[in-house]
Amino acid sequence: MNIPIYRHSANIKRVLLILAIGMILGLLYYTQNLVHRLRQDSANLIRFYADIYAKAAMDESIEDFNFIFEEIIKRISIPMVLSEKIDANPTAWRNIGVSETLRDSITVAHVSKLMAEMDRENRPIPLKYNERVLQYIHYGDTNLIRQLRYLPYIEITIVGLFILLGYIGFSLIRSSEKRSIWVGMAKETAHQLGTPLTALLGWRELLKSELGENDLLNEMGRDIQRLEKVAKRFSQIGSKPVLQVMPINPVIRDAVNYYERRLPQLGPSVRLEFDSDGDYWANLNADLFSWALENLIKNALDAVPSQNGHVRVTTNVLHQGKYLAVDVIDNGKGIPKKNRRDIFRPGYSTKERGWGLGLSLAQRIIHDYHRGKLQVLQSKPFEKTVMRIVVKKYPPQKLDVA
Description:
Blueprint: H1 4-7, H2 9-58, H3 62-72, E1 80-83, E2 90-94, H4 105-121, E3 125-129, E4 132-139, H5 143-211, H6 215-236, E5 244-247, H7 249-260, E6 271-276, E7 281-284, H8 286-303, E8 310-318, E9 323-330, H9 358-369, E10 373-380, E11 384-394
Parallel strand pairs: 6-8
Antiparallel strand pairs: 1-2, 1-4, 3-4, 5-7, 7-11, 8-9, 9-11, 10-11
């Protein structure tokens, strides 16, 4: 079963990302275009005032000149600095946040620095009289233009924070819902298995008292024990599992033996082997860890060909002996790179009748309960696929014997 929402989730994310980038670029373009137009208007206004001021200076009427200076020039809100030459020290300034009456060296040096910053953004405008340049007007952006320049970045930051908080919130809610579904299904399964298991145990004991020991009853007993183990596993989902430092090889051997008895059903030449290079210890819940390992072995056996299919389980140490790796290696059809992240999602499966829960459950057991890691180490179709479990390695300890 391959649920479409999981198959197309990556494409949906890409489309949403592209739309978000497009909206951001559109907002930046619109705002920067508006800022550019306002800058042009500011420059045109400065030129207009400069022409009026120069014309008034040529006029013989002192009243007109004073009116233009007091009522027009002084009311300009645009930051301006005047200088006799482009690179000379400033002679006057307005609207730059510095007192117009101060003329000490520190103030002049600070205004000169501001003037240089203005020149990098806007070209100085000459103030002419009879084709003679009297002064240069250096001007910068008004507060409104500066606010508009930073507005899109502020909006993007705020929207991004809301999206991030919303994503985290919805992710937590979704994880909680999925966890509740997992726990509910597991608990209900364990409860439903309990009644028929008790009845089967009773019927087996009744048959045993009438027929005595035989191979069929022994095989039935093993199957009932298996069902009891499955019920016990499901009952531990959602509860804090009890971990114990123990040898890991017997746990792996038990999982391998379970499938070895079923190999004839898979194909005449399918092989399943366990190879360990040492006796290692780990902090495990044996029931849950073997459940995760069995899921990996089952997937590997389903993937290998019926002729010369080979599955091998190995153990080895990593990172100077600090960690232990359990590898399930097969020569099956492999896992494409584009699907390697999807295979651990609940509901994703390439099998026609699969529910897509095995690997998701295995990852939850290894990651959440054993603080380990489950990954696709490598995959080459019909050559070698390696699923690796990594857990912390512990030194051998004395086991309590009841």
